[in-house]
TrEMBL record:
GO terms for cellular component: microtubule. Residues 2-147, 190-242 form a coiled coil. Signal peptide: none annotated. One of its GO terms (molecular function) is microtubule binding. InterPro entries: Kinesin-like_fam, Kinesin_motor_CS, Kinesin_motor_dom, Kinesin_motor_dom_sf, P-loop_NTPase, Vik1/Cik1_MT-bd. PANTHER family: KINESIN-LIKE PROTEIN KIFC3, KINESIN-LIKE PROTEIN KLP-3. One of its GO terms (biological process) is microtubule-based movement. It comes from Regulus satrapa. This is Kinesin-like protein. Belongs to the TRAFAC class myosin-kinesin ATPase superfamily. Kinesin family. Residues 746-755 have a biased composition (Basic residues).
Amino acid sequence: QVETLKAKVLEQAQEISRLRSEQGGTDAEKHRDLLAAENERLRQEMKACEGQLRELQQRQQQAPCRDCPHLQENAGLQEQLSQLQREAEEMRAKLAELDLEVQQKTNRLAEVELRLKDSLAERAEEEERLSRRLRDSQETIASLKSQPQQIKYIIKTVEVESAKAKQALCETQSRNQYLLEQVGMQKQVLKEMEQQLQSSQKTEAQLRAQIMMYEAELERAHGQMLEEMQAMEEEKNHAIEEAFSRAQVEMKAVHENLAGVRTNLLLLQPALRTLTHDYNSLKRQVRDFPLLLQDTLRSARAEISQAIEEVHSTNRELLRKYRRELQLRKKCHNELVRLKGNIRVFGRVRPITKEDGEGPEAANAVTFDADDDAVLHLLHKGKQVSFELDKVFPPQASQEEVGATMHTAGVSGEGSHLLLTLPCLPQVFQEVQALVTSCIDGYNVCIFAYGQTGAGKTYTMEGTAANPGINQRALQLLFSEVRGKAADWDYTITVSAAEIYNEALRDLLGKEPQEKLEIKLCPDGSGQLYVPGLTEFRVQSVEDINKIFEFGHVKRVTECTNLNEHSSRSHALLIVTVRGLDRSTGLRTTGKLNLVDLAGSERVGRSGAEGSRLREAQHINKSLSALGDVIYALRSRQGHVPFRNSKLTYLLQDSLSGDSKTLMMVQVSPAEKNTSETLCSLKFAERVRSVELGPVSRKAELGSWPSQEHLEVLKTLLGDSPSSAASPGRGHASPSPGQLSSRSASIRRKLHTSG
Ligand code: ADP
Ligand code: MG
């Protein structure tokens, strides 16, 4: 048993030493130390990597590749790097955790070891004690053997005592069992730890691989950066080389320029010397110049003032001559007018028209004298009657010709030389021009169209749109004359339009056309007449006049039911007033141009006419007789001129008397059926003209032409063929509708002519 026990104890000891060797606490520690050393190494490597990274960053910042396209890539790489760093940091934290765990486990292991040592010591003590007892027992046994009596007892004792040892052995065994369990547990823990260690080693390997990868990437980025830097360096070098070569070329050019400039300078030096010389001489001249200038100015001033003085005196002389010329012109004009007579009578025969019809009634009854353009023959009732006027216009005479011939007829007499001052003017409307000129000079002018209805009064005065009459041409001339004199004269031209119907004067431009106007003496005592309320429009062109015509025409049309009839039964007046101011002399002039389209002169059958028709005829007869009287009286220079016998003559008083000029155009129809009226008109014309023009003697002669007597003559004339007046077919008691409509159309055409 003792042997067995010994063997068991030995076994236990062996087991303990095995366990001790197996426990491997020192291995784990070694392992931990190894790991710690590895960690440390990794940390070192990490630090080195960071250092390199910082260095690279610095280099990158210093490197002049701010605008490099790799900058972005670099930034990406840096981002990746920081990510990797973060991951490495995490790994490091994990590693630290693992370290902590290993530390804790190591501590626990140390504790277990301590406990194991304690139990081992206990066991050793126990063994010691047991072996001592065994020895004691063996000694006892040996002594007992020598004392056989006592052996049994001793054996008993030993047996008893051996039971006790058995119990102790049992206890030791159980304790050993417990320790074994403990060791197994420790082994288990160690295994777990080993597993943990393995996993952390794996993680570490992974981390290391990642770090390697990052390092490789870093290496690559670094390589790229180096490449870029190199490329940039090359570029820089290239640019520098280029700049250098350019600069060299420029330098060369500059050198060449410099050489050129140098040669120029050399060439210029003599020029500079001459210039300096010139400059000095000029300086001297400038110094002397004020004196010279003063002298020259003095003499020039004297010359200029002398010249101005001369010009002044010449001007004065010219002005004096001009004024004298003006007076002379006026005198000549007056003389001319006196010679021509202030009143002139022309006859105009219109062509046969469709309105005259056909057959013997429409046959031509008027012939002309081939040698004398002032003579006209009328075949009346089989007898030829001849008339002499100032001028006769045949049917083929054009509107222009009428005007032109009026003039030549006018100068064919004694005063022809006086009008030779106008030879260069076109031979159109010269007579009218002369009248317009006198109007501008401040004379009053009257142009009348006299004759039976349909004889061509309106045609002569207004004309057609395509072929205007005296009115339009006279006004055109007036405006052009005024324009021509605009340098010296300021002119104001105003226009009024009026009509006289049944001895009532009406304003055709006023707001109240029906209102009857009165002719009054100017309150200023000048003896001038004026019509209060008569509208006056200022005009500056023929267009303005045409607008006014239109306005007046519209008034006239709206006021009467039958314009044709009405217009042949009324006198239409266009009064143009020209006021002038000579800026150099301050002379003021006022001239009036009266253009009158008279009412039809035809006789109204005394037995046939009644009521308003008779009243109209009486008024027309009266006013035309009065006009005839006035013209007689004026032409024969009577002391009394019966202006007041009619509204017409009274209105035109200042335009018929004094230095005023009058032109009477007697219109004649050549048709056979109109011969009675033609005879009357021509007799009237001849009688008006028959008064001899001449000096004072005429006055005495005129005295024998009282207006009343003339009226009687006229009446006789008008009534000398009652048969024709009574016959509606031959007479012209009333105008034919065709004639009337043609007159209205003529007015319309005229009004629509706006230049
Ligand atoms: P009055 O005004 O005397 O009544 P008009 O002037 O109306 O007469 O003339 C009557 C007609 O005769 C119109 O159709 C007009 O065109 C025409 N007439 C008048 N004189 C001439 C002429 N010289 N040449 C052509 N036609 C004329
Ligand atoms: Mg008419």
